[in-house]
Structure prediction request, 152 residues.
Amino acid sequence: MKYLILLFSIAIGLGLNSCDNSDKNISTDVVNNSKSASVVNKMGSTARFSFEETEHDFGKIIQGEKVTYSFKFTNTGGSNLLISKVSTSCGCTVSKYPKKPVKSGEVGYIEATFDSKHKKGYQNKTITIMANTEPNKTTLRVKTQVVQPENN
Prediction:
């Protein structure tokens, strides 16, 4: 009986909690449904990434070095491209990206900085971009080989 009362209490608590409408703004990174982008496509063309390259190899770098690369893209779709979120596979990769909409035909850059401090050997890191594109998730990759500095 105590088990049923506990379950019932939890269910009511979850139900009341889910009715909280305090956050009325919905972030665009919630839109993970490709069918919603298809609806936009009926009214006009969706935004589209067209990257010159989606992978960059820094080659060999010395441990402790920071290296940066800018991935160049063009919005080849018919509507403004809006990046809602950029995440990386580890804290050593930092990205800069356009915070304002990129108009159709315009160029933008996703900047990736790799800090090799405390790293060694082959490194392969990803940058995931969430945007109002079809598909809504795009992955970029940076890789390098981190070597120990020579002692003189």
Notes: The radius of gyration is 22 Å. The mean pLDDT is 80. The longest strand covers residues 121-131.
